[in-house]
Each structure stands twice: as structure tokens, then as C-alpha cells.
Amino acid sequence: MLNKPIVDLAAIKSAARRLKDLAIYTPLLRHPTLDNLVGGKLLIKAEPLQRTGSFKFRGAYNMISRLSAKSRESGVVAYSSGNHAQGVAAAAQMLGIRATIVMPKDAPQTKIANTKSYGAEVILYDRQKENREVIAADLAKSRHATIVPPYEHPLIMAGQGTVGLEAITQAELLGSIPDAVLIPCGGGGLTAGVSTAVRTLAPHAQIYSVEPEGFDDTAKSLIAGHRVSALSGARSFCDALLSPLPGEQTFEVNQENLQSGLVVSDSEVTKAVKAAFFHLKLVVEPGGAVALAAALSKKLDLKGKTALIICSGGNVDGDIFAQILETST
User: Which residues are catalytic?
Assistant: First the structure.
């Protein structure tokens, strides 16, 4: 008997049913100026408009809502730089479950504040000196709570895969099946879920992960054929994508589904954030804009092609966003 896949279209459709009327069916946006810049057609999935401001709510709710009554009584624990934190906190609040979130001290203040606003307890740690997974594991053990990982779980991947399910359905209605799909990638959960949906629904599309320079562990792992870490000491303002190593399960899925990994600089991301704001009137955080950055900086030849671009989140501090808009590029 063949091994059951980690995530498949059936699991993604199940997640979509569970999220119906709860997750926002975010729009697929276009703008002629952006199309002209690449010489093709860009279909931009606007997840900054999602509940909590990013795709993360999808996976968090899909997993937490399936917990047993006994598990719900003990609460959940998560670790995140901010978007998963907010997704877990919001999902737990909706379900009446206690949530504790381990977040880095240098996370954007808007992400910390938003997480607390959903009623979650926030525990801050030093990203350079402490291990968030160890802290979360100790908390979960002492409280008999369930850990909700940011990406390394089939239910999380399936929930994130609803982004791809929606986007391909929307593209079909426009008569524009994508030739290429570009997905922001940190630990790989969104990439795994979306790529699984795309592989099934648009099998001819070539699928690419996109990461910031210095945190291109998935791109390097795809080349090596096994998981490898990103460069030690690297820095990027794409705070949502600073995972140093792909997840074991997510990489297994992505190794099967992806053409390759693309890498963008902070400067290229800055241009993409500005383009999204000025042309689409969409606020996209740096990590959420890497796929658009890859398209606009022509990491791929998209001339005459249709590309699905996932803009994954919009939770950015106001002062940082203002600085980006004022940057001359």
C-alpha cells in the first residue's frame, strides 16, 4: 500500500469547508502597470486582507478547531514572530480556548499588540540567545497544552493550502490559469499547502518558493537534495520569513512540488512593497512581498506568461512602512 501523502487536495478541501464563512475569501488583484513591468500577467492573491492580516489564521483554525474537548480545556501554545501568533490567538479566542504565544522581543510591536488584543498571553524571548521551541515545549508540558506549530503539521499545511485552492478557482473564472506560481517561504507551510493545491488543479504550472537573502534555506535545500541551514548571522527586515531551516515534513512536500527556490534582497522587497501600495492600494509587510519582489525584479522570465503571486501578509509597523514608502528606489 502506498504511503498516505502528508497533505493532499482532499485535506485542503476539508480545511476549506471548516473555514467557510470564517476565513475571508481574499481577492485576486491585477494592475496594468505591474503587468507591463514584467511583460506578462500578474494575479496577486491579497492575503493582507485576511482575518488577522495574514494567511496564518487558515492553518491555525483548521488545526485548533479539530482538538478534542479535553485538549481544548488545557489550551494551546505557539511560537511565532507574529503572524502565526495572531492567527493562533484569534482562532483560540473564537473557540474559547486559552492561548499562550512565545514571541521574539524584536518582533514588530503591531504584531505583539495584536496578539494580545485577541486575549492571548505573550511570553517574549531573545531570538539570538534563546530557543523558542524549547520554551514552548516546556510551557506545553507544564500546562498539558497542545503545541500549534507554525508550519510543521499536516493540518496547518492543509489550512494554508486553501490559499492556493481559492486562487486557482479565481484564476479559472478569469480564464487565466497560471504558468508560474510564486510563494513566500519561511518554514515552508504555506508553500507546501499552496503547491499541493496547484500541482493537482493546475499541473502544468511551475511552482517556486521565494525567500529573503541569507534565509534561503529552502532554495539551498532543494539544490542539495536535503535540508540545509541558512547562513548564520544573516539579517533581513522580512521578519516573517527568518526560519533558519525548512521543516522536515514541509520540505518533503516542497521537494516533490517545487521547480526551484528564488531569492530576493531587502532592496528588491522595498520596491515591491511600494509597488503594492501605490498601484494596488495594498499594505504588504516585507515578508509578505517577497514573491511580488521576485516577479518585479525579474528573477523569472514572465514575458507573455501568467503568474500567480501570493502576497501573504500585511502586518507591518507604521513607522517601518512609512520609512519604506519614503525610500528612493
Answer: 56, 312
